[in-house]
Amino acid sequence: MTTPDAHLDTRGRPEDDVREAHATAERQLCGLVTGLARRITDHVRERATRLDLTAPQATALRELTGPMTMRELADRMACEPSNATFVIDKLESQGLLERHPHPTDRRAKQLILTPAGTDLRERLLTLLKEEGPLAGLSLEEQDALQALLQRATAR
Question: 47 forms bridges with which residues in the sheet?
């Protein structure tokens, strides 16, 4: 017996099977990436709390690897400069960083950690390494994952 929609049934065609397999793989991968991002965010938030920081403050400290502009930091934090400014204002009021004139751009300021900020950053980095979501991966595996994610996000 033929159903009215029998002509729409494309199951069993090799190209449809491949398309469905790709869709399933992409859905599963997206779920894993989302889950990993959530675990990393939760980990940063929990570790930040131990140091009386908010998650955005901890993220800013983690990303401040040296003198940089607000725009550079905002890019690293994946947020708008206005959001980074709010976080930086708080860190500055806590004596953890200072704004200095940029050496080559009179319009920009450089963010520089104070000695207290450097000490707190080191403590934060130590805490973030403890039982982190990527701790089960070797450095080589983390490098491979990073390379794959960079390729995927470069498009």
Answer: none
pTM, to two decimals: 0.79
Amino acid (1-letter code) at residue 64: L
Written as six digits, the tokens of 81 are 């400069």
Q: Using an 8 Å Cβ cutoff, are 114 and 98 in contact?
A: yes
DSSP string, 85-106: HHHHHHHHHTTSEEEEE-SS-T
Please report, in angstroms and rounded to a whole number, the separation of the first and last CA atoms in the chain.
48
Q: Give the DSSP per-residue string, 39-84.
A: HHHHHHHHHHHHTT--HHHHHHHHH-SSSEEHHHHHHHHTS-HHHH
Q: What tens digit of pLDDT does each residue of 16-59 get? A: 888 888 888 889 989 999 999 999 999 999 999 999 999 999 99
